[in-house]
Amino acid sequence: MSEQAWVGVEIGGTKLQVALGNGAGELWYLGRQRVAAEADAACVRQQIVQGIQQALEESGYTPRQIAGIGVGFGGPVDDERSIVLASFQVRGWAGFPIRDWLVETFGWPAVVCNDAAVAALAEAHFGAGRGCSPMFYMNVGSGIGGALVVAGRVYRGFGRGAGEIGHLWVDYCWEEPWPEPRRWRDLEAGSSGWAIERALARTLGEPCTVQEALRRLEHGDARIQVIWHQAIDRVALALSHVVALLAPKRIVIGGGVSLAGDSFFAPLREAFARLAFAPLADCDIVPAALGETVVPQGALLLARHGLDRLIFGKTCP
């Protein structure tokens, strides 16, 4: 096999994905591993090494045929230094020089960026945001993230991230217990998959996944309906702020919670229409097109073209 390939990696809080492809929308290999709840950063790094070794073995590629590696990381990253600033789901990542580790471990050029920004690039180039500029991408899964793409490039502010819609304060937390002084709740704490499941367990008195809640919602469970619509209303409120500030042509939403389909998008569009700044309330809100491959696809794109061509802000004058 003589064709050159790139490696794309998604490092999430609950999953790790490794892909091989051409960075132009073609995916030649995709492997997925679960990240255990008790895993720390060192465990995940070991999984990355194993996942890439497996990808090469199963695809028939050799390390010499790999032109570079791109990573979408589930947390804020310092773009200029490629240092992890924080991980809200896996301990041990804060301050870690992830690009340097990748180069030392594999010997390939490496590029690292936040996973939501990487996913936004993939949807803008290959998915539901293609041909739309500006486009805002939002992920509603175990966490909540976002990114603004303009003319095919993602905005990263002064180099430590932008578009962090999950950390907009959206309401006051009346439930107990809630650690002081964080009585005001950000969107991720109120509407992420984990937050919804915590609210369900508190209300129902037993564990309940989002998937199970949706099945019960179809049968008219009023308690679940309240929790579900409150979570969606918070998303609509946050998006109304995004639209008022940035006026994107289209909003693309991915992530596990959004896979509920019409049960998610219908009430979201209805709430958004009520809350959005009227002249901009006709903003298109659509589901992401690339599904579980979105971050690996974006990571491959990033590996092939690099930060300078795909992001703008302080690091790209």
CATH 2nd-level architecture of the largest domain: 2-Layer Sandwich
Radius of gyration: 19 Å
- Terminal CA distance: 39 Å
Could you give the order of strands across the largest sheet? Answer: 14-13-8-9-10-15
> What is the number of helices?
10
Care to count the β-strands?
Answer: 15
Percentage of residues assigned to helices: 25-40%
Q: Any overview of this molecule?
A:
The chain has 317 residues and is of the alpha/beta class. The chain folds into 2 domains: 5-119 and 292-312, Nucleotidyltransferase, domain 5 (2-Layer Sandwich); 131-288, Nucleotidyltransferase, domain 5 (2-Layer Sandwich), CATH 3.30.420. It has helices at residues 41-59, 98-106, 115-126, 187-191, 193-204, 210-218, 222-246, 262-275, 294-305, 307-310, and strands at residues 5-11, 15-21, 27-34, 66-73, 77-78, 83-84, 110-114, 135-140, 144-150, 153-155, 169-172, 184-186, 250-254, 284-287, 311-312. A 6-stranded mixed β-sheet has the order 14-13-8-9-10-15. Helix 7 packs across helix 8 (262-275). The longest helix has 25 residues, at 222-246. The chain starts with a strand and ends in a 5-residue tail after the last strand.
Write a short abstract of this structure.
The protein has helices at residues 41-59, 98-106, 115-126, 187-191, 193-204, 210-218, 222-246, 262-275, 294-305, 307-310; strands at 5-11, 15-21, 27-34, 66-73, 77-78, 83-84, 110-114, 135-140, 144-150, 153-155, 169-172, 184-186, 250-254, 284-287, 311-312.
